[in-house]
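$ run holo --ligand "flavin-adenine dinucleotide" --emit tokens
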Amino acid sequence: MSIAIDRDRCLACGVCEEYCVLDNIRVQVPPCRAACPININPQAYCTLLAMDRPDDALEMIYKDAPFPRLLGYVCHAPCEGECSRRLVDEPVAIKELKRFLVDHAAHPADPVNVGWPTGRRVAIIGAGPAGMMAAVSLRQMGHEVTIYDSLHEAGGMALVGIPRFHLPEAARKADTALLDRIGVAQKYGTTVGTDIGFADLRKRYDAVLLAVGTHVEERLNIEGEQGAGVLDGLSFLRAVNLDKEIEVGRKVLVIGGGNVAVDSARVALRLGARDVQIVCLEKRDEMPAFRSEVREAVEEGITLNCTWGPESILLEKGNLAGVECTRCISVWGSGGTFQPTFDINQRLTLSADTLIVAIGQSPDVAFLADGNARDIFKGNALWVNTFTMETRLKGLFAAGDMVSGPSSVVEAMASGRKAAVSIDRYVRGQNMTLEPIREARQLLAGEVDLTRARRYPRAVMHQIDMKTRKNSFALINTGYDKATAQQEADRCMRCAKAMEYYNECWYCLPCEIECPTEALRLEIPFLVS
Ligand SMILES: Cc1cc2nc3c(=O)[nH]c(=O)nc-3n(C[C@H](O)[C@H](O)[C@H](O)COP(=O)(O)OP(=O)(O)OC[C@H]3O[C@@H](n4cnc5c(N)ncnc54)[C@H](O)[C@@H]3O)c2cc1C
Ligand code: SF4
Ligand code: SF4
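-- output --
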């Protein structure tokens, strides 16, 4: 048998594999897809976009990502870190191409099929990326789903954390509208533990998913922290995102090295602060914030004071005056635990009239006391079976940042989907520890021929001018135009392809007929000269 694949056209979509009745074909997984926590296939959508089929490309994204705008705007793009093209020059701009598609291609009318009703009822606490993704997956499986959230709308941190200069409100709203369209019951403005009891919720549903994120800002626990002029990062960002009145001084100091700290600094700048500085324990390349976030903050004129830790808050006549810091020698202890050590002889005094503390977040789980569910914690750590996402209590699952700690939108989505697979098995009375099918069959792309790369550099993403950027909440990245997007998509080297697997073939042809790009051709012996 000879299956000929045109590599430039192959999407590695798996259709031929599905249609082959003799199991003669295996489709490889490209490195970009293997690195995507929710299995999006960048090779497929880049190839379709390069072929001038943007609507098909976006439909391909929807197969794995029901909220593609959130990812097109703010995903931290782990796929690009593994893209083979990085070995030639720079990775394909996979995330920005997704952004182009969500902005310019036609979104499918019904991107998600709701499953046949099972009569099983699942409650989800938290309408952030983890809860929303779990809700979609559970609806696809036919279960009734009700989401509870304290906020007035869906999005979680995408609503109250991520600033609008990264993620416009319209994009978030357009994505979260899917929940209405697929019949997810949504109870907003409803805090579990205050407006509805947790034990009551457990009784009313066949399973409950906790996806409450990490919305409590940790404290420095030093004197002066409760005084005027000191804010916590999460409350600050939440107030700005919800259009509440909030003022900052001319000199703003932010403590912390994560996304909340860096975004707080950038937001303070946009609210009128003239001198914004960040103080963190880590070296610059060890800061937990996304690298692009740190780079852009520095471009905007924000000063980084790395390897310093706050020792005391300075007051003058009862008012905030600044912070006294000591040099941080190392952040982590031998077992990788957070154990900063300091050289108290090296000191730095920084003045400020507003101090924003953003040194880490944890989940607010006081509501678990109702129903004795506090047992799901071992000390301060939430215990879940990492395979099933079930907690120590039967029928109670957890997902997202509350399990992993502060993470990312795409990882929270992946965790929500994983929990949904187990919840489905649980409410149907099935074994929850069955191996996920995808991982069992994964065949990674082999060595990629780097000489195949067409030589042109990664397309530059244009940004609004620096003055507008620093003085407004306008979206920073303006997005690609069509010609640039198509050219960038064509930088993809199509690393994976369909592979001949066994040696017997009936030449029945569905693989060739169903291939969406006519990439596959069967060379039937008596037809080949
Ligand atoms: C400032 C900031 C910037 C970020 N930037 C990015 C970025 O650019 N890219 C990226 O990928 N990630 C980013 N992240 C991380 C990302 O937003 C989170 O990892 C992700 O939102 C976590 O999803 P989640 O569903 O687990 O939790 P969340 O998004 O936190 O959602 C939890 C939800 O639970 C609700 N809830 C909590 N307790 C209760 C209760 N008792 N009753 C009812 N509802 C409750 C909350 O109101 C919230 O809506 C950022 C985070 C922050 C804070
Ligand atoms: S070159 Fe294309 S297929 Fe290969 S890893 Fe990069 S985006 Fe994926
Ligand atoms: S050969 Fe065609 S059907 Fe098979 S993976 Fe490639 S594009 Fe998909």
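-- notes --
DSSP finds 21 helices and 21 strands in the chain.
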